[in-house]
Amino acid sequence: MSNSKTRNEASAPISGALNTVWHGAFAFVAGPGGVEVLVPEVDMHAYYTGAWGPGLEQLLPGKRYRLSGVKKGDGTAEFRQDENVYVRGPLAEQYDRFVRCSWEPLLPKRVWTLQRMKVEKSYFAKPIPSGVQIPDRIGGVQVLSFDFDDLSSLSVLETSGGAEGERKLRWQPLPEPSQVAAKGQPRCVVNLHIFADPPHRFEGRMASMNYEHPVTAFAELMRLTQVPELRLRLRQGDRPVRLLDANVPQGLPKSELMNLAESGLLRGDGMAAVGAGAWLLRSDGAKQATDTKGRSHDSRRAFLGRVGAFTLGGMALSQVAFGQVHPFDCAPIIIDPSAPHPPPPPPAP
Question: What is the full DSSP assignment across 39-65?
């Protein structure tokens, strides 16, 4: 009896939650059948997916990707309008010319907007087109969460729409070590990361790209819409305030929220590749390395902590430590094509 019970427990499907973590410049197109994800072609971007760590797999031009093995949500999960750039209106004609690859519509159970920064309206060239909503904070990472009934059924499939069919990517959906289901409770948490941002930092002579590149990435996103005239405008010295991500999905380490450049996943130099360290902003704005316990390598220890809050000019500001070498990350936009694009205002008499 006990042996039979043990065999049944071992063969029972493991259920749980899958967090898909989207880092960088994506266009999330909301529709009645779910959220289609368009990935624009952007100079100096790298496109990868997989688990956090070695073995990321490149997303190829002209391919369509599908997430298999997840349960559909009930359609009530939405992106926060107060933390994302919203564009209401149809996609641009022939928008697919500017798309590198795409993902079939997803219907998540829940959506999080993370790695948020406070932004100013002055960062955008005026006038702001009608139908576009610019909030005072924008997130660089979106997390779309799903339930699944069988861990072994999770996969990412790739197709080009031809006769060759679908190809299964190498991604192995392994549970987070701290989230493995307890005995008798077959439920776990799995994380899948998708990147569309620069693979390396802009330093030295390339430092100005920390401001120029996000402008280019935003312009490529807006080319997918019918309001490509909306431009991001950044100047040297612009530095948005980072906000603390207090509400993070279960089983998703905060160290896995950083962008591709800061993660070190493609460099192999150990810089935070597997949580080996992070960069912090000191109170004087300089960069500073820390070890895995958040201890500063700077003997003066003039740092703010791995994740914490500090006061500037009498105002309490929150700061996220991970991914903080340059002030602006490439951020996504949300497109609602079901809403008609408002007509331009009549000219002044």
Answer: EE--TT-EEEEESSSS--EEPPTT-EE
pLDDT 10s digits, 107-156: 999 999 999 988 888 889 888 998 999 999 999 999 999 999 999 999 99
Whether 25 and 332 have beta carbons less than 8 Å apart is answered as yes
pLDDT in tens, 275-318: 222 222 222 333 333 333 333 333 222 222 222 222 222 222 22
CA 45 to CA 220: how far, in whole Å? 12
**Spatial distance between the Cα atoms of 90 and 88, rounded to a whole number of angstroms:** 7
Long-range contacts of the stretch 206-209 (C-beta < 8 A, 24+): 208/236, 209/44
**Alpha helix (H) ranges present in the chain?**
2-11, 209-222, 260-263
The one-letter amino acid at 114: L
Spatial contact of 86 and 334, defined as CB atoms under 8 Å apart: yes
Question: Is the Cα torsion angle 96, 100, 103, 108 positive or negative in sign?
Answer: negative
- Going by C-alpha positions, the residue among 14, 57, 15, 252 that lies closest to residue 171 is 57
Count of CB atoms situated within 10 Å of the CB of 196? 27
Backbone angles phi and psi of 48, in degrees to 5: -140, 160
Whether 283 and 50 have beta carbons less than 8 Å apart is answered as no
How many Å apart are CA 166 and CA 242, to the nearest integer?
41
**Are 51 and 193 spatial neighbours (Cβ–Cβ below 8 Å)?**
yes
Please state, in angstroms and rounded to a whole number, the distance separating the CA atoms of residues 316 and 328. 21
Question: What is the pTM assigned to this prediction?
Answer: 0.78
CA distance 20 to 107: 12
Q: What CA–CA distances, in Å, run from 92 to 55, 97, 227, 257, 342?
A: 35, 10, 8, 31, 14
